[in-house]
User: Fold these one by one.
Assistant:
Number 1:
Amino acid sequence: MSLDLIEPILFGLLALTIVGAGLGVVLADRITTSALLMAFTFLNMAGMFVLLGAETVAAFQILIYVGAITVLILYGVMFTPQAPRAYGLFFQKQTTVGAVVAALAALPVMVIAFAFRDTGSIPPRGGDLVPLASSIFTDFAFPFEVASVLLLAAMIGAIVLVKRE
Amino acid sequence: MTTLVPLGAFIALSAALFFIGVAGVLVRRNAIVILMCVELMLNATNLAFVAFSRRLGLIDERGSVFVVFVFVVAAAEVAVGLAIILAAYRNRPTVDVDEVREMKG
Amino acid sequence: MVPGPFDIDPLVWLVLRLLIAVVLTLVLILVGSMVLIYLERKVQATMQDRIGPYHVGPFGLLQTFADALKLIAKEDFRASQTDAAFFIVAPALVFSPMLASFVVIPFAPGIVGADLNIGLLYLATLGSMGVLGIVIAGWASNNKYSLVGGLRSAGQLISYEVPGILSLVTAVLVVGSLSMVHIAESQPGPITNVFIIPLAFVTYFISALAETNRIPFDLPEAESELVAGYLTEYSGMRWGTMLALTEYGNVTIVCAIMSTLWFGGWQGPGVDSGPITGPVLGVLWFTLKTYAFILVFMWIRATLPRMRIDQLMSFCWKILIPLTLLNLAVTATLLIAFPETKVPVAIANWILLGAFVVGVPLIQQRRLRKLRERSRARTLGAAVAG
């Protein structure tokens, strides 16, 4: 087994765990198991980003998703305690229809997805830190400022919504 | 020279994860699990953006720039979504989306 | 692919190198934590005018070894209603990010695990991953006090990440690179970064104290608060991993970051003097600087009282974060306005540091005086009325 195949092997492993953990989020019995499997999906997605050569995005993914959003969701779970049975797999009325429609829509999309071809050139070396940083602060400086205003609005909105009178 | 994984494989994986998220939103009854499945969908689109950006030889990493903005929007959305769920929970102690049916009270 | 010694197959040598590196890092952390626990007890004893451990081994040097043996031999029990999988996984979730952080720290010129070009971002990311393990530990213990302690600790950690990362970003602005190796190499000579951005150093020092749960910010894990918070149900080696190893590993990492970013890391006289003596001297300087900061951490532990949770949160959000944001804005503006020299940045930073050191106690004194007057007026009014 030569080292040439290491990228497809890693891709296969990561893809299997991502799909498995995603299915686990949807089908898990308890909500904390769903939350931890979601965090596991995020970690493997960060690994996928590193495989593509975008390591800055991978670091941001772990910092934001695993470090903040998962903790936020766990806080939400712990502040809404319910009877243990109520966390379970209660399905909505449209379960069978919904699952079938999602599966049927997924298959043609996945088949078409394989038709995308890359240009065949080797991806640029050196990672994505410098191009990403120079793009954000020169070409996309205005969306960057708008994003910070969006975060401020979300923070104020969340605080106002949960304030006790 | 290592053999590269074809671009289509990344996009197919992104599509699979996206539709798993869609199925989760349609199927589950717990509001917080629905929020988690929305995060899965956003992750899938991030993967598609980064894969296209790195593999089609685009300059300036514009796909990754958009991914950073998707991170910001996802974080803001989770915060506000959880605030809404907590506020509704204070009204009636349930997170079951089938229970929150009437518009008043 | 580089073939290994004795002509081992390159793939086998790759896996072997990885295993050797992991084993060496684990040994480093274990021995380092043992040394730090002993050092902490001796330093605290000296400052409290007593002797500390002296029974086991000469000068009590084997005390931590005996403690570790006791912890390993303890009965491993787990309360029956706790969530088995999460209870067992939580110490691993807390320990792993700390273990992974040692990869990017440069110990000497040429001795670094991996020269990542996003080294500092990687360290910040791993610091934020540790919060997840603490929340899981608090929840899995099936104990109200543990849950509240875990949530409080997580709240403190994520609040103090913000000024910490902003201080690191200020240092990165001055240096110009995120790679730890490059940061250490960019400070030759006696004028290291601490003379240019001292305020960032002070704010990072404070948020490092909070990030590693040290006094004065150790409310979540103090023994007299919430029955030791999220650690209540953990005993034996689980407690050893979660508390001792992880905390002292984290302390080592933040002190290593401080010494690399602001004091030059392995820089010192004699590091470029040869292929063998150079790295050895580099490791020596790095160890001296890191352990100097660790001793300051222990000194602070022996001296200062503990802050309440609302005091520490209000300090972070109302004082530290505006200050670090201001520092970042001022540094960035001055670096663009005067691209040649770093002297304006240094002047502005020292002025801001002076304002911080003088201003915060003044504000607190004024607030305390106003509070005392208000309460005195209230009791006087109650005495007059009734």
Number 2:
Amino acid sequence: MSIFLDKNSKVIVQGITGGEGSYHTGRMLDYGTNIVGGVTPGKGGQKSAHGLPVFNTVQEAVDATGATHTCIFVPPPFAADALFEAHAAGITFAVCITEGVPVHDVLKVVAATPGMRIIGPNCPGLISPGKSSIGIMPGHVFKEGNVGVISRSGTLTYEVVDLLTRAGFGQSTAVGIGGDPIIGTTFVDCLREFKNDSQTEALVLCGEIGGSDEEDAAAFIKKHMPNVPIIAFIGGRNAPPGKSLGHAGAIISGKFGTPQSKIDAFEAAGVPVADRPSQIPGLLAERMPAKV
Amino acid sequence: MNLMEHQGKELFRRAGIPVPRSQHVTTADEAASFVGANPGNWVVKAQVLMGGRGKAGKIKFAKNADEAKAVATDIMSSPMPPNRQNPNGEPINSLLIEETLAVAKEAYAAIAIDRATKKPVIMVSAFGGMDIEEVADNHPDSIAKAFVDVSGGYWPFIGRDLAFKANLDKGYHRALPAVLAGLYDLFFRYGAKLVEINPLVLTEDGRVIAADAKVELDDDAIFKNPEFKQWQTTLPMDEDETLATKAGLGIRNFRRFDGTVGTMANGAGLAMGTMDAVKNAGGSFANFLDVGGGADAERVRNCYELVMNHTGAKAFFINIFGGITRCDEVAKGIVEALRTTSSRKVPLVIRLTGTNEDEGRRILAEAGMKPVQTMDEGAAEAVKMAGA
């Protein structure tokens, strides 16, 4: 069944006429995503480069197309505004690709958009292989299957998924939740969905230093998913404290966010932690057969 | 971006948080003339971002113009002593001259962003004037916390509640809710990641005053306040951040370490993973570098030169997973960068996989380079080349 996204999900793109938005809209269409239009204020009534209708507002787009999902490609100062506009128009699922959104903007958005699931910001989006993709993930690396993937990073996810695909483990849905300190959807939020997904039989979690999202995930697994085969990986294990490495959220402050705390938590939940991505397929194979 | 004490206190003043009477000066002569015109008990404090000013002898007292001139000259005569994070210390370019307070009690108050609840968290403790991490270790129950719903915002009951829960001296009880109101206002108005008062002083005559100010602003929100852009140029920049900016990278995309394998990858997660891979292969990494999305020749050359000119790398490991980034474009970038760079050369290991991989490999092969297939293989090879 996959989570969050399937073939029928109707998607609009906010920022569809911008460089990034236009390019990735084309890629998503190629993958089979059901994109029904886009929004660029002032360009309503035009067609996008892909022949899709462009609307002035999200409300107009929703009224005309019945869209429920949005993918946001607008610059950082306008990202929160775009999310609030989507919520006001009744969108229930938003992916925010934008990197560098002020953290206070995100605090306000997550506090005041009930009923709308937000992935990101600063994320690569998500993909339900063989069905649909929202964001910037390279579709050709993925293969439909029964392993759910949750990750805080982009390229590291592709690396891990590529290894899984080559080893015969296809994926149900892969979610890049984003590298910022405050994000709309956490590991635990994704776990809740995967837990109820009939297609998903195993999980791979790619965490990194900073925050306590991985520890929370480990506690959830211990309590609610003790018998599901799950493998974890923690990026940035050799990073020094006090400095963000690339992702604003990848920072060890004091005793918080250290790799050891995350590894301990996963191991206490019976989740093996791979030392390197290349070990993940092997650890998974010990717990379930690959379906080549 | 961390602010200096005098800048933080300027923001405190605007938000109505009581701060000591003070004057910000940049020379010993200015210090002397201010104290000369305003005789009394003054404390002269170096304005730096590094901690440990007191221990370093960079906070001193003066009662008259002569004393002010002498201590100001002394404080500014040498930089802050180096520590692990600041191997070059920090130059002292200005001083804050402040009224001395007759301290009865010291408390702690701060607002930060709590990742788990996705809310601002207000923290108050009766243990003021000491490192809050030590307090959290030794007296974890002494820190009272309140998580604020941003829709409703801050209301005085939250401050009253925290004063009781933290067991603050009665003298704080009336003032604390208003101090926290100011702190919350400033936290939101300027998009801060952290605002901290340590210590929040209760004076002998019953006043509650912020004796120090720590404000960390969100780099991503500085565009909202042009004034901060101005402040940013005067603040001592982290050297790695300066180098990253000059190379056209984001400020978080480059960081130096003391190892021998230079690294470059596309994407922060993969770049961290690359460092981990070098370590796993028994080597030591010279840097973290996320080249970002498009890796054209100019970008690759800038990154290569950044690592060659500013680290002790003896080998260079380029780790690219072509997702959106196409391997053939990266390969062209690498070949062109190496052809045109004037930097020193070290053995190069390239791992190139993903979109248009075959074409990328062909381009590298034509230039006499042979890429490896996996990250582990590349890391092992680079560690060997660097001679451990």
